[in-house]
Design a protein that fits this description.
The protein is built from six helices and 16 strands. By secondary structure, it is an alpha+beta fold.
Length: 277
Amino acid sequence: MKYLTKIGVLFILAFVGLSELNAQNDTIDLKRIGEKKLATQVLEHYQNYKNLTYKMDAEIEFKDKSFSLNMTYRNILDSAIWINLSHTTGIPVARILITPDSLKLINRIDNKYLLISFNEASSRLGYDISFEMVQSVFNARLFQVEEGKDLAQSFASYKVYRDSTVYVMQNVKKNRYNRNRRQKSEDQLIHKVWINDLFQIAAFSIEDRVKQQTIKVDYPKYQTSESEKYPKTIWFVAQNSKEHVELKMDVKKAEFNLPSVEMPFKILDKFEPMQLK
């Protein structure tokens, strides 16, 4: 488990995204819709919860290594995220606690811990991350790549086009984006969101041309529990010129609005600080 520290941090950052959006043969007659209205429709179709809990099976591929893990994800909306990872045999692996201003991780295999702010994590790892981003990825929600506006206003400047079974929103025009790809322009942060006919997020991607990083997240299937729709499968893929990380999670059980949500996190005396390279 010598890669656990970096995998855990990547897991927290949640910038990892997945395989291409699954193509379908059928074509849906999507109505024309404006940018701001489309974003508003997505917001109106969010799950109506104050807290949620997922029980998941997770598969991680990193540096030609593959890991199968059991995972519990708990989220108090806009306040805290708690993740517990264990081997399929039940052996504890890691525990993560995320708040809007901090990341905390316990490596229970090597008896190490990490306490770090989002700003420090971004500086050391070279990625721009936030609590909102992590929460949005796991919960299939919109998030902003640029701060300063509310969500509907932020996405009002995006361009919308229809692609077979989905709407696509992106922060540059389609023809300009394709032209820039041919010219290998490196001055773009390309954010794309695929939205299905039920106004659920089907996938999103972020391409940072300066850092030569691509992040994709795919939600190929939704399911209903307690009248709430949630992503049944979450696929992540992150890659740059040096690394390729894949994470696939299959939600086995989802619970919403529990009377109380426990997020235990204790650093034992025998644990030593983790050093980020």
